[in-house]
Amino acid sequence: MVEQATEPVRDLRDYVGRLNEEGLLRTVEGAHWNYEIGALTEIGARVDNPKAMLFDSIEEYQDGYRILSVPYLTDQHHAIALGLDPEASSVEIVRQWKNRISDVERIEPNEVSTGPVQDNVFEGNEVNIWDLPVPIWHEQDGGRFIGTGNAVFTRGPEDDDKWNWVNAGVYRNQVHDENTLGMFVNQTNQAGHQMQKWWDRGEPAPIVIDQGPDPYVYAGACAKLAKGDSELEYAGGLKGEPIDVVWDDDTGLPVPARSEIAIIGEVPPPSEETQAEGPFGECFGYYAGGAGMEEERMVINVKKLWHRDDPILKGCPELKDQAHVHALGAHLGTSAKAWETLEDNVMNIEGVYSLYQTCQQGSNILVISIEQEFSGHSKQAGLAALSAQNAMTSNMMTVVVDEDIDPSDPEEVFFAMTTRCTPEEDVDVISNTPTFELDPRTPPKARERRDFTNSALIVDACIPFDWKEEFPDVVDFDEEYKAELEEKFDIAEWD
């Protein structure tokens, strides 16, 4: 059983309730699905003290049909969602997550006969996705998108041992009409390989979309696990208890029983049916993907729609911002996995933090704090971090700092980079590092030949080891003395 700093949230609405208790939720009434919710999400994510946003009384929709937008804006939000200590520092939250995921035991889901997700059940001609307040998230989106923020369940054919397990991932879904969705799946994702196995037989692939998942289910879907490793079992391990599921006999797939909304259907072979999908505002902050225009992509024929009373449609749209606004545990997982890799190869690692990260996997700027022991120690740490599986994709910069620098604080990191780094000596360019298909920096000709590589910097922003004792002292009072003054003068109330 994994150790939880706080009681695990039961489901998405339990999480919403806890955010409200902690003053980390903003309720907005009367917004319109057409642009207003998307624009308000963008504005709300960038205020000084951002909060998750719960939209209610949405224009043209009945009260109670709600949208929860950007639910994981800060490390405190992530901590509450994942049972970590919300009062801990960012680096300590990463440490807690590293310890959690390093030895998490998989727990099989628990099959139940029914659950709250079946409060309302629609099948066949009763299905109408437009009954849900699906918004337009970005100004130039090609339509109304019900994802992301979901958990999409797929499996391979029964007799294919290599691909027949229940996989969960996060994929966007454009609503084409009342019972047809579009879906974009990257070529490297396991769901695409599973669906291809069905299509090779000339059969549609079964699919279930959990569009209001328990935070632990969503964190599992956001994680990058090995082929054959069940995200549902992983989610149960993270939560410390099995995830209750209702089994759908038609698809042979599980539906989390406490989901807000479940969409159940099939994906026909693209040779038989596709529709134009996109564009969509991507995780890099651009309308990327090919030329950034709409493309013919797979469709989902929806056979069933289940939802709870007063359902919450969860929206985690990508913004011109970091991944933590749309992917629960993404930067924590990247930081934690890089930290594990470093601890296996480099001594005296004090902290690791993905300071800037646009997508679920791969840190754009990764910072490592070390206590130097020998010449070249900082360079060793930078090279090791760049090779870490979860941190290398789309990495533009790996920065190594001393133990007195908080790797999660941009001001401190910039201080170290501008006062302890000599670019000629301390910056290395590494060529041909991997990136994503959606990376806007990929030249058109490279995109045509599927060459998704870029380059990365390793920045040594540590005090030079060879003359460390002669380096000037930092202008700063002792931390213990400042802590005493903070308590004496109640500085916490100064904000």
Describe what you observe in this structure.
- This protein has 495 residues and is an alpha+beta fold.
- The protein has 2 domains: 12-324, Roll (Pnp Oxidase, Chain A), CATH 2.30.110; 329-479, UbiD C-terminal domain-like (3-Layer(aba) Sandwich), CATH 3.40.1670.10.
- The protein contains 13 helices and 22 strands.
- It has helices at residues 12-21, 36-44, 75-82, 90-102, 190-200, 215-222, 231-239, 330-345, 377-386, 410-419, 423-426, 444-448, 479-488, and strands at residues 25-29, 52-56, 66-69, 110-111, 120-123, 151-154, 167-169, 175-177, 180-182, 205-210, 244-248, 253-256, 261-267, 275-277, 295-297, 299-307, 312-315, 349-356, 365-370, 397-402, 427-434, 453-460.
- The strands form 5 sheets. Strands 5, 6, 7, 8, 9, 10, 13 and 16 form an 8-stranded antiparallel beta sheet that branches. It has a 5-stranded mixed beta sheet with strand order 18-19-20-22-21, sandwiched between helices. It has a 4-stranded mixed beta sheet with strand order 1-2-3-17, sandwiched between helices.
- A hairpin with a 4-residue loop joins β11 and β12.
- α4 (90-102) crosses α8 and α6 (215-222) crosses α7.
Supply the key terms.
Pnp Oxidase, Chain A; 8-stranded antiparallel beta sheet; 2 domains; 13 helices; alpha+beta; UbiD C-terminal domain-like
